[in-house]
Design brief:
This is Outer membrane lipoprotein. The protein has three helices and five strands, in the order αβααββββ. By secondary structure, the protein is an alpha+beta fold. It is elongated and about 100 Å long.
Length: 161
């Protein structure tokens, strides 16, 4: 039961973090971004490995230690408590790593000047195919790919008569 509680806490904490291209981080709001036009060359699915912040290990260690220390007499409780803490930390770390894993896309694009770039980003609402017109939006050291919106040039001014 306690391990289930730990897994729930780790999953809840993992859900607070996102790398979705559809979510803008607070620090990136109202900041000027650079935009480059590009064409998609290739798209492939990848998995971004999960993180190990230590929260899962600490939570698992505490729960394992508490659960283990309630077993047997005083001497056994100490030994089983330590073993439970170690086992709980290992399980908590693994749970956190799996819970923060993310399916993503590696999108290779070609810029107008012929240079190629590859960007890995979480799968969002947009899908990309080779040949799609896209823009690379760079803000504060991060870059994301978005579908380019077709923009019509403004109409030429009419001469006054």
């Amino acid at each position: 039961m306690k391990n289930l509680l730990i897994a729930g806490v780790v999953l809840a904490l993992a859900a607070c973090s996102t790398t979705s291209p559809d979510v803008v981080q607070r620090g990136d709001a109202q900041r000027l971004s650079t935009v480059q036009d590009a064409v998609v060359v290739n798209v492939r699915e990848v998995t971004v490995d999960g993180s190990q912040s230590g929260i899962g290990g600490v939570a698992g260690g505490v729960a394992g230690g508490v659960a283990g220390s309630s077993v047997g007499g005083r001497r056994e409780a100490v030994v089983v408590g330590v073993l439970g803490a170690v086992a709980g930390a290992v399980v908590g770390n693994a749970t956190e790593r799996l819970a923060t894993r993310e399916q993503a896309l590696e999108i290779m694009v070609q810029l107008r000047n012929g240079e190629r770039r590859a960007i890995v980003q979480a799968q969002g609402k947009e899908s990309f195919q080779p040949g799609d017109q896209v823009v690379l939006i760079s803000t504060g050291g991060t870059t994301r790919v978005a579908r380019a919106q077709s923009v019509q040039p403004p109409p030429a001014p009419q001469p006054r008569s």
